[in-house]
């Protein structure tokens, strides 16, 4: 027999493999582990970041038998988010596209809540990307809080764009 506990495991944590055999004279590991193994025992998988399959083949006078167990890894709840504004230098009245990217972690679906210079707060925009234009010159910033389907949250460092005067822009 071959078992893993716990299974599945949280991202970047270990499971413990335990096995036993009867009428066997040797056991050999393959898959995510390798080498000769005792006829019974326990061994840590080490920290896992992806699903792994462990196979144990034991041989005795009556032949050989193998057992496999796959240790599942739950998605990481730690998220990393980055933001960018494009173009980085724009003219008055030109559309700026603020885009958020989930760099790592989290579980879809994602929801977005934008904040920053001249961005409405109630309700905050929830689209990604978020597009807007500015009617004043100067440095503009935007940040977003992303919430994953597993309730993990992350915010990006504020992205910046520079809005410059457009000599052809006329206000009425």
Ordered list of secondary-structure elements with their pairings:
Blueprint: E1 2-5, E2 16-19, E3 26-31, E4 35-37, E5 41-44, E6 52-60, E7 63-71, E8 80-86, E9 89-91, E10 95-104, E11 111-116, E12 130-133, E13 138-147, E14 153-155, E15 159-164
Parallel strand pairs: 9-15
Antiparallel strand pairs: 1-2, 2-5, 3-4, 3-6, 6-7, 8-10, 10-12, 11-13, 13-14, 13-15
What does this structure look like?
There is one protein chain. The protein is rod-shaped and about 90 Å long. It is 0% helix and 51% strand. It is mostly beta strands. It contains no helices and 15 strands. It starts with a strand and ends in an 8-residue tail after the last strand. It has strands at residues 2-5, 16-19, 26-31, 35-37, 41-44, 52-60, 63-71, 80-86, 89-91, 95-104, 111-116, 130-133, 138-147, 153-155, 159-164. The strands form 4 sheets. Strands 9, 11, 13, 14 and 15 form a 5-stranded mixed beta sheet that branches.
